[in-house]
Design goal:
The protein is built from six helices and no strands. The protein has about 140 residues and is an all-alpha fold. The chain has a domain of about 100 residues. The chain is rod-shaped.
């Protein structure tokens, strides 16, 4: 006897909704919702978002370590200028990472928007289709 037989067939074949893709793209990981819907652009979105996230985390970690090691007196102008230059490099690296992450996030939101448009068009197409006489007879039996 099998303990776990997997999800019922109706659930397994249920298409992923645009709303679920939007939640995955906006909250979980940019590009994940695109992948859930079968969009190949999702691979690039996930890659860009992970690169941006890791780059900004790495630069922030280095910046915090650099600030912790800094020993600058208010009268030492040369040391202060060197500190600002070095901190500026880390800040620009963190900013670049956040910019890449933001780009991937916006791209995934645009993809989610296009999924909503696709669903709306599919719904309109289904509404325009005339039901077959057999289905119509089942809904409205003759008196």
């Amino acid at each position: 006897m099998r303990i776990f037989s997997g999800p019922p067939q109706a659930i397994k074949n249920k298409p992923v909704t645009a709303k679920a893709c939007l939640i995955a793209n906006a909250i979980v990981l940019p590009g994940l919702g695109s992948l859930m819907r079968g969009r190949k652009a999702g691979y690039l979105q996930v890659t860009a978002s992970l690169i941006g996230l890791l780059l900004s985390i790495y630069a922030t970690k280095n910046l915090v370590q650099f600030i912790g090691k800094a020993d600058i007196s208010p009268t030492d102008t040369e040391a202060a200028i060197a500190f600002v230059r070095e901190a500026g490099k880390e800040l620009s690296l963190a900013g670049a990472g956040l910019a890449i992450l933001g780009f991937a996030w916006l791209w995934s939101l645009l993809t989610s928007w296009s999924l909503f448009k696709e669903d709306r068009e599919a719904k309109r197409t289904l509404e325009k289709c005339e039901p077959s006489p057999r289905i119509d007879a089942q809904r409205h039996p003759a008196p």
